Amino acid sequence: MKILLTGANGMVGKNTLEVAKKHQHEFLSPSSTELNLLDGIAVQKYMKTHKPDMVIHAAGIVGGIQANMANPVKFLVDNMQMGLNILTASNNNDVNLLLNLSSSCMYPRDGLNPLSENLILKGELEPTNEGYALAKITSTRLCEYICKENPLRLYKTIIPCNLYGRFDKFDPNHSHMIPSVIRKLDEAQKKNKQEIDIWGNGEARREFMYAEDLAEFIFYAIDNFEKMPQNLNVGLGTDYSINEYYQAVAKVVGFTGSFKHDLSKPVGMKQKLIDDQKLKEFGWAYKTSLEAGIKKSYEYYLSEYCND
């Protein structure tokens, strides 16, 4: 197939293109300068010209708690606009297959863990990333509406847990937790710092999957697209506390200092664990353990970031 991949420059996009080398599909992977997803007319024109058989929508403005809290307008408006533009242009140009990448932050802040796919819009969202969540909910629902209106359309959404891995950003202010902790502890270890701050009490629990595993899943989904559920969680079905992630990274990086909890800082949801029952029924499971994933991510960080 000819597949249009949005967000080809992001972590998920780059991992997908790496795994694509093992498959026969032709990928269109325009940069944001070649295709501005915020420009609805440009997106319509691109679809009309290139006529993809399938679209994988992986583009988005992403970041951790700090970035979400600092830029709520951008996280809501840009993510919603991109989703609306790519979905309506695909539908208007008779693209029958579309895989929409969403996020587990769509689930209610007080949702019962593990979080199952039917909990979308069943409760109040987590305030620290509400804008991003609203944008993702809109795209997810629009996929459902398009399928209801036209039975030929298979527009489906996957809901990954948190991700980390190769091609990640290791920016303490803008990246997700594991890459920022890798950088934080590596720099602390090199400077012989004896103490590192952890936001909150470190007891909040998170589920992180190695990004290459998600890319492998995407190709499994392409091969089994008709039988894939409309909305599907993709993750490990197991989680760890923030304290345990810090300890796991410290072990890989070689940081031997202590941790201090900054209780004045926000921590987000107490737990965000996906229900992987439907994923198991769909026949897929992740491969990379936490320790192996952190090791690979640290090697990537050392080779790509520390040698600049």
Describe the overall structure:
- The longest helix is centred in the N-terminal third of the chain and has 21 residues, at 72-92.
- The chain is built from ten helices and 13 strands.
- The strands form four sheets. The chain has a six-stranded parallel β-sheet, with helices on both faces. A three-stranded mixed β-sheet has the order 11-8-13.
- It folds into two domains: 2-164 and 208-234, Rossmann fold (3-Layer(aba) Sandwich), CATH 3.40.50.720; 177-205 and 239-273 and 289-304, Alpha-Beta Complex (UDP-galactose 4-epimerase, domain 1).
- The chain has helices at residues 11-20, 40-50, 65-70, 72-92, 130-149, 177-190, 211-223, 242-253, 277-282, 290-304; strands at residues 2-6, 26-28, 54-57, 97-101, 154-160, 162-164, 195-199, 205-206, 208-210, 231-234, 240-241, 258-262, 271-272.
- It has 308 residues and is α/β, with parallel strands linked by helices.
- 42% of the residues lie in helices and 16% in strands.
Number of helices: 10
Structural class: alpha/beta
What is the CA-CA span between the terminal residues? Answer: 37 Å
Low-confidence segments, given as residue ranges, are none
- Which band does the percent of strand residues land in? 15-25%
**CATH domain class name of the largest domain:** Alpha Beta
Label the overall shape. Answer: globular
The total number of structural domains is 2
User: In CATH terms, what is the fold-level topology of the largest domain?
Assistant: Rossmann fold
Cα-atom Rg, whole angstroms?
Answer: 19 Å
Helix content: 40-55%
Find the CATH superfamily of the largest domain.
Answer: NAD(P)-binding Rossmann-like Domain
Mean pLDDT: 94
Strand order of the largest sheet: 2-1-3-4-5-10
